[in-house]
Design goal:
The complex is a heterodimer.
Chain A lengths: L36 H15 L7 E5 L3 H4 L9 E4 L5 H11 L4 E7 H5 L3 H9 L4 E7 L2 E2 L5 E2 L22 H8 L3 E6 L3 H13 L3 E7 L15 H7 E3 L1 E6 L14 E5 L5 E6 L9 H13 L3 E8 L6 H5 L11 H4 L3 H11 L1
Parallel strand pairs in A: 1-2, 1-3, 3-4, 4-8, 7-8, 9-13
Antiparallel strand pairs in A: 5-6, 7-13, 10-12, 11-12
Helix pairs in contact in A: 1-7, 3-5, 5-6, 6-9
Chain B lengths: L8 H7 L1 H5 L6 H9 L3 H12 L2 H7 L4 H4 L2 H4 L6 H11 L18 E5 L3 H10 L5 E5 L8 H4 L8 H12 L4 E3 L7 H5 L5 E4 L5 E2 L7 H4 L3 E3 H9 L9 E5 L3 H12 L4 E5 L11 H9 L4 E2 L2 E9 L2 E14 L5 E5 L5 E4 L2 E4 L3 E2 L33 E3 L2 H4 L4 H19 L11 E6 L1 E3 L2 E2 L18 H4 L13 H8 L7 E5 L9 H5 L5 E4 L4 H4 L14 E3 L8 E5 L8 H5 L5 E9 L10
Helix pairs in contact in B: 3-4, 3-8, 3-20, 4-8, 5-8, 8-20, 9-18, 14-15, 15-16
Classes of the chains: A alpha/beta, B alpha/beta.
The complex binds flavin-adenine dinucleotide, thiamine diphosphate (TPP), iron/sulfur cluster (3 copies) and magnesium ion (MG).
């Protein structure tokens, strides 16, 4: 059993704009089960953050409890991290974000952590459009506590030791849409080609960005009869289209087939190119997104890709008009402007 | 690309970079692991089977394995493969009881070996246990060839040489020393079944420059001078010595001069420093002993005054390279440089000479007056006459002579048993899983980041006093252990089973050096642009699987794989397994396992 990753890396690893290689974004060696989808998602996060040239110390990894919530140890070893209580990651991120809006908040949660104990928190953080990336590593079970069905287990799906599930499943993308999330996507841990650009887009999006990533649990839920196994997902996944993330500084040279393609300019000037495969979906319409989700649910297929995006999203800081500067950078005089100011405010409210 | 045929032994053989580069294909990682396990005698025997002279080679080998070592592709320095061999030799027990039995009753077939250098000794070592009657003839007083006459004792102590030469001479071979063979016809007339010519490249090249005639009393051919030192006919040299030439012979000449009274000893070479033929470590050793190397100096003239050698003049040049990389040395136009000298050693090369081989024996000679020798069988155009070592294709080194000797022995055995010399035996190969438990391997798969350890040297003041004091002290066992742990175990292969793979990507994610990819198949050139990691070393193979359920293939670039086994540890279905690949060149009379 290896407890450490060897120090050597490929000698020709590409460096990003900060001069860092991918290795500078890695974490400790994973202790999750061999073959766990969560590890692939960690790999995709490493790749996305490296390629976006994000300074590692500008990222805060936030999580709850579960195998998925343990995963932040296995990526971005030089970033900040907060492993909070079960289902309570959203409120911790809300607090952190209010205190310092200049960090990139990368929430990592599981289907249990989000759709069971954390359902209320999830609903409200989506509704408030907090500027964060919220990745659910969705394996349709409580992996850490030995594989019990979760609230995202599909009706009729059976885990390795269990009977077919009798309850209706929560679709986190649908819930997020209902709650007012401004960026909603679904992907599959086994498809980095799709997942990496989606993570980049979610990071660049201003507002609440959910990516529900189906992530097979090899130990408890990768058996025939499970709708979250590698094989089932591969056979039933249907992509809305492909997403290409084009960084701000790159010139766009390719010609796109009109009608099928959308180009979206993001807040930082980078752009997203969407190549639509599903003609019925308008990814900028919440109604269209909800309909398409329902269509696919009826057809028992798994809709992946970018499902919805609000191009004009206003995040919580925009709405509340909070301080641009982090609280820890404010002087005492700014934080406590004194009695006169208080008097003025009170007077204005009388 | 076509799926890789891992059943072809050459595929995995090539992954074991050091073994592949070794002319005798010594199973390097196998013996390095035994050294780490303190099983020195076992490590020695693996070497002895393969390269015959582990103690000698552990000090003197040209080590083509080291520049090839995988470690060079992931960090700076290769594993000290050569000096680890010496650790096995220095620390072994008496291993003579492990040698093959020599049959008392011979098989009646007589073989003559001419020359007792490493090539002939290897033939003897391989054929004596099979019952052949072996007669060796050599013009020196003892066996070893140039290992005795040329390699100075401060690099190779006589005791080490004697020990390993005697292991072979003690196998009941008939060796006649101090005998010059002057006619191959005479030998052939004695009804030998086969004759092996292992007489090396015994003739030193000289430079015929103005003044040579008058200076000749103080101008020597390097290899003649070295052998006269080795055989104790020469025990001193002048204070100021110029050594001409940039190869290993020049390095041995200058270092020996330093020990025989040379004070101002200089190496002067025509080429730029980097182009010198000497191995980098030989140059370092000379410079460490305070010997300057003057490069880009072309010798012009011996300066003799009143019948006395005063020195030499040199023209300064610069190397220029044309678009094909061909070098020419262009004079800089500066004044000639004069260097004082009492003695001059010319070490500018060696060549073959076969004045004793009659040209009507059916042995064809080419336009360079070299015998025409088959590169696989080492047979000449006279089916009973074989050549090997430096005599076959010109001067090389000990390990090459050994490799030739093994192959020639196979040919001789095939010839004598009435089979065709081209019916070469296949290599012996085994491939065995190293899995001991879910994540347990029977090899030490952790990758050590240690830098290469430096071999300690005896103090300069002492070694420069006496040419017989060995300069290198060798690794002590604990340093040997640490150096051994640097080996990446390239023989423990990553073996992929596409039937088990569920394409979960776990191996791709964990691989520290980005070796593994799952992608759609294509031509190699295109495929290499679509892999997880950069894939620019075309000399390193791609391991391509059959089609997987998603219609993709697994592609592994062997280039910088650390053989850490993490892919196999992280694979949920054991589609990857770590399997030890042992490749043994089959020797004469051994039936191959394959
Ligand atoms: C100065 C010097 C240093 C070297 N250092 C190294 C080193 O560090 N490492 C390395 O790997 N290689 C080294 N080499 C090269 C190495 O010594 C040879 O490549 C190797 O010994 C060749 O082996 P061989 O069996 O072909 O012939 P040799 O070793 O040359 O043996 C041939 C033998 O045949 C004898 N012989 C020749 N003609 C006749 C005849 N007509 N009758 C009877 N006997 C005859 C010769 O005297 C000699 O004993 C060095 C060479 C030189 C010159
Ligand atoms: C308050 C609280 N309740 C229950 C638990 C037990 N518990 C730990 S992890 C977990 C479920 C984790 O499931 P999920 O979020 O899907 O993560 P996974 O392990 O599947 O990745 C539960 C119920 C707990 N740690 N804390
Ligand atoms: S690392 Fe070890 S096995 Fe690999 S090439 Fe170097 S010495 Fe040989
Ligand atoms: S053994 Fe496997 S994980 Fe380790 S470097 Fe090689 S391919 Fe990568
Ligand atoms: S870890 Fe194993 S099952 Fe997963 S992709 Fe690699 S070889 Fe296939
Ligand atoms: Mg879960």
């Amino acid at each position: 059993m290896s407890y450490q990753i060897p120090k050597f890396r490929h000698p020709e690893l590409p460096v990003n704009e900060l001069g860092y290689t991918k290795a500078d974004y890695e974490g400790s060696i994973s202790t999750l089960c061999a073959g766990c989808g969560h590890d692939s998602i960690s790999g995709a996060i490493v790749k996305a953050c490296h390629e976006l040239s994000i300074e590692p110390h500008k990222i805060a990894k936030m999580s709850g409890i579960g195998c998925s919530s343990k995963a932040p140890t296995y990526f971005l070893g030089k970033s900040h991290g907060f492993n909070s209580v079960h289902g309570r990651m959203p409120s911790v991120v809300t607090g952190a974000s209010m205190a310092n809006r200049n960090m990139l908040y990368l929430g990592v949660s599981g289907d249990g952590d989000t759709a069971s104990i954390g359902m209320g928190q999830f609903a409200h953080v989506a509704r408030r459009n907090l500027n964060m990336v919220y990745i659910v590593m969705n394996n349709g079970c409580y992996g850490l506590t030995k594989g019990q069905d979760s609230a995202t287990t599909d009706e009729g799906s059976a885990s390795k030791k269990g009977d077919p599930n009798v309850y209706s499943a929560i679709d986190l993308c649908g819930t997020a849409l209902q709650m007012g999330a401004t960026f909603v996507a679904r992907s599959f841990s086994g498809d980095k080609g799709q997942l990496v650009p989606l993570i980049k887009a979610a990071i660049t999006h201003r507002g609440f960005a959910l990516i529900d990533v189906v992530s097979p649990c090899v130990t408890f839920n990768n058996n025939p009869g499970s709708t979250k196994s590698y094989e089932f997902v591969r056979e039933h996944a249907e992509a809305t289209g492909t997403v290409d993330f084009v960084p701000m500084r790159k010139e766009i040279t390719t010609d796109y087939k009109p009608g099928y393609t959308h180009e979206v300019t993001m807040h930082d000037g980078s752009s997203l190119h969407l190549y639509k495969l599903d003609e019925n979906l308008d990814p900028f319409s919440r109604r269209s997104a909800i309909n398409t989700l329902e269509d696919h649910r009826d057809a028992r297929s798994i809709l992946t890709g970018l499902i919805y995006m609000d191009k004009d999203s206003q995040d919580l800081h925009d709405v509340l008009q909070t301080s641009q500067r982090p609280l820890n950078a404010l002087e005492e005089g700014e934080l406590c402007p004194g009695n006169n100011m208080l008097e003025n405010i009170n007077a204005s409210l009388r | 690309m076509k799926p890789t045929d891992i059943k072809n032994p050459e595929y995995f053989h090539k992954v074991v970079d050091c073994q592949y580069a070794c002319p005798a294909h010594t199973p390097v990682p196998e013996y390095i692991r035994l050294i780490a396990a303190e099983r020195y005698s076992d490590a020695y025997m693996i070497n002895w089977q393969s390269n015959v002279f582990p103690g000698i080679l552990g000090r003197t080998c040209d080590r083509p394995c080291e520049p090839a070592c995988r470690r060079v592709r992931v960090e700076e320095e290769p594993v000290a493969i050569c000096r680890l061999k010496r650790v096995a030799a220095d620390n072994k027990d008496d291993i003579r009881d492990r040698f093959p039995d020599i049959p008392r009753r011979k098989n009646g077939k007589r073989i003559a070996l001419i020359g007792a250098g490493p090539a002939s000794l290897t033939v003897a070592r391989d054929l004596a246990p099979l019952g052949y009657i072996i007669d060796i003839f050599d013009n020196q007083f003892a066996g070893g060839g140039m290992m005795r006459s040329q390699i100075p004792s401060f690099r190779l102590p006589i005791e080490v040489l004697d020990e390993e030469v005697n292991y072979i001479l003690d196998m009941g071979v008939n060796a006649t020393f101090d005998i010059e063979v002057t006619s191959l016809k005479e030998i052939l007339d004695q009804d030998y079944e086969a004759v092996f010519v292992g007489t090396g490249a015994p003739r030193g090249k000289g430079l015929n420059l103005p003044g040579l005639e008058d200076a000749s009393a103080h101008v020597y051919l390097g290899i003649d001078w070295l052998s006269s030192v080795a055989f104790e006919h020469t025990d001193s040299i002048g204070k100021r010595v110029l050594v001409l030439g940039g190869g290993n012979t020049a390095m041995d000449c200058c270092r020996t001069s330093k020990r025989l009274g040379g004070d101002d000893v200089r190496v002067v070479v025509r080429s730029p420093f980097e182009d010198m033929k000497a191995s980098p470590w030989e140059k370092e050793d000379a410079m460490h002993e305070g010997i300057p190397i003057y490069n880009n100096h072309v010798p012009k003239e011996f300066v003799v005054e009143e019948g006395e050698l005063k020195g030499m003049t040199f023209e300064k040049v610069e190397a220029e390279y044309d678009e094909n990389g061909k070098r020419s040395l262009v004079p800089t136009g500066e004044d000639l440089v004069f260097m004082e000298a009492d003695d001059v050693l010319m070490a500018i090369g060696q060549e073959n000479a076969f004045p004793w081989i009659e040209r009507d024996l059916g042995i064809e000679f080419d336009k360079w007056d070299m015998p025409v020798v088959d590169e696989v069988t080492f047979q000449s155009t006279n089916p009973r006459v074989f050549f090997g070592g430096d005599s076959a294709f010109g001067p090389e080194n000990i390990i090459t002579a050994v490799a030739h000797g093994h192959q020639a022995a196979i040919s001789i055995d095939l010839l004598c048993s009435g089979r065709g010399v081209h019916e070469r035996p296949a290599p012996g190969v085994t491939l065995a899983s190293q899995k001991m438990g879910v994540h347990e391997w029977s090899y030490d798969n952790a990758v050590e980041a240690d830098q290469r350890y430096v071999v300690p040297l005896a103090p300069l003041e002492e070694t420069l006093k006496d040419r017989k004091i060995e300069v290198e002290l060798g690794f002590d066992p604990s340093t040997g252990y640490k150096e051994a742990e640097r080996c990446l175990n390239c023989d423990v292969q990553t073996v992929f089973d596409e039937v088990r793979c569920i394409e979960c990507d776990a191996c791709v994610d964990i691989c520290p050096t980005d070796c593994i990819s799952f992608t759609h198949n294509g031509e190699e050139e295109d495929l290499r642009t679509r892999l997880t990691g950069p894939s620019n070393d075309l000399a390193q193979d791609l391991y391509v699987s059959m089609d997987l359920p998603t219609t993709r293939v697994m592609v592994k670039d062997e280039n910088v794989c650390l053989h850490c086994g993490l892919c196999a540890e992280r694979c949920p279905t054991s589609a990857w397994d770590m399997q030890k690949f042992l490749y043994n060149v089959t020797k004469a009379g051994q039936e191959s396992a394959a």
